[in-house]
């Protein structure tokens, strides 16, 4: 590259970076994303990094394998939009999602890929140690119940090491457990094109506590042949919009409070 071209390019980059930095203060309508940022744009910003954590696991005959990742990713994006609008001084950054988790209970159903709790825990610890070199705070925003044990252990260790990491889950009050009314409604709201409505079937709606011994011994297949815990036949996009809004509200409140329990979970 000739000297004159090089200096033109670097002038252009400086201008771009300045424009982007000033955009942070203009309450942008879209969140900043780790994946499409440059390293230079992040220098001297100390952002709070929000990392969606999902799974790749069966969700009955009607929902895609990435249901949990989709929900965690969409909630994280909406949370960052809200937080950015409310607090123009804090830099919020959306990370690419972690798409695989601990889904051993769904083994046996084609498409499920589970790395298990020990591997996920180690992954989260090393992720946190690396990201904490430049991010001031780190939040794992979880979409899958099976990941909780790894999240709690990893985040507790990161905090013990004086890294400001925390986690929280997308929660729906009174929701059913898996691929039922709750998740099907949220997907009908977020991405109806991926819901196979013609294949919606009722699953096992018994309380989780009652199913637990069988679930522990034989996984989801032992209690529901179709892989559903709950009833997706009642799902609607309107219900999904309400559930999604509740999830976002809850996460915004807990992230704003930034009070973690001994497991590193934001309360
Ligand atoms: Zn799910």
Give your account of this protein's structure:
The structure is a single chain. A 5-stranded parallel beta sheet has the order 1-3-2-4-5, sandwiched between helices. The chain starts with a helix and ends in a 10-residue tail after the last helix. The chain has helices at residues 3-24, 39-42, 67-86, 116-131, 148-160, 181-190, 208-218, 237-257, and strands at 32-33, 48-53, 92-94, 137-142, 165-169. Strand 2 (48-53), helix 3 (67-86) and strand 3 form a beta-alpha-beta unit. It has a domain at 27-173 and 244-257: Creatininase (Rossmann fold, 3-Layer(aba) Sandwich), CATH 3.40.50.10310. It is globular. Residues 1-30 have low confidence and may be disordered. With 267 residues, the protein is an alpha/beta fold. The site of zinc ion has 6 residues, from helix 3.
Mean pLDDT: 90
CATH class group of the domain at 27-173 and 244-257: Alpha Beta
Largest sheet: 5 strands, parallel
Instruction: Estimate the global geometry from the Cα principal axes.
Output: globular
Radius of gyration: 20 Å
How many E-type strands?
A: 5
The SSE string, one letter per element, is HEHEHEHEHEHHH
Which ions and ligands are bound to the chains? zinc ion
CATH homologous superfamily descriptor of the domain at 27-173 and 244-257: Creatininase
- From the 3D coordinates, which CATH architecture of the domain at 27-173 and 244-257 would you assign? 3-Layer(aba) Sandwich
Distance between the termini: 54 Å
List unreliable stretches of 5+ residues: 1-30
Placed side by side, the strands forming the largest sheet appear as 1-3-2-4-5
- Strand proportion, as a percent range, falls in 5-15%
Structural class: alpha/beta
Give me the number of helical elements. 8
Kindly state the percentage of residues in helix: 40-55%
CATH topology of the domain at 27-173 and 244-257: Rossmann fold
């Amino acid at each position: 590259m000739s000297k004159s071209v090089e200096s033109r390019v670097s002038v252009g980059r400086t201008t771009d970076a300045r424009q982007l930095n000033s955009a942070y203060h203009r309450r942008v309508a879209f969140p900043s994303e780790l994946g499409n940022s440059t390293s230079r744009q992040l220098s001297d910003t100390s952002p709070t990094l929000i990392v969606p954590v999902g799974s790749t696991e069966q969700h009955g005959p009607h929902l895609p394998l990435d249901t949990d990742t989709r929900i965690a990713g969409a909630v994280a994006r909406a949370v960052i939009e809200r937080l950015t609008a409310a607090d123009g001084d804090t830099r919020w950054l959306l990370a690419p999602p972690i798409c695989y988790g601990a889904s051993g209970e769904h083994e046996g159903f084609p498409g499920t890929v589970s790395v298990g709790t020990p591997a996920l825990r180690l992954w989260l610890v090393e992720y946190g140690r690396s990201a904490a070199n430049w991010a001031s705070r780190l939040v794992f925003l979880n979409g899958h119940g099976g990941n909780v044990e790894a999240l709690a252990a990893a985040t507790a260790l990161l905090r013990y090491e004086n890294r400001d990491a925390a986690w929280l889950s997308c929660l729906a009050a009174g929701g059913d457990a898996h691929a039922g009314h709750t998740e099907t409604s949220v997907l009908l709201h977020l991405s109806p094109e991926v819901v196979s409505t013609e294949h919606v079937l009722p699953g096992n709606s018994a309380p989780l506590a009652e199913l637990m011994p069988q679930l522990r011994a034989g996984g989801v297949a032992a209690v529901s042949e179709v892989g559903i815990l709950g009833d997706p036949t009642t799902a609607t996009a309107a219900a999904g919009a309400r559930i999604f809004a509740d999830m976002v509200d809850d996460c915004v409140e807990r992230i704003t409070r930034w009070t973690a329990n001994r497991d590193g979970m934001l309360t």
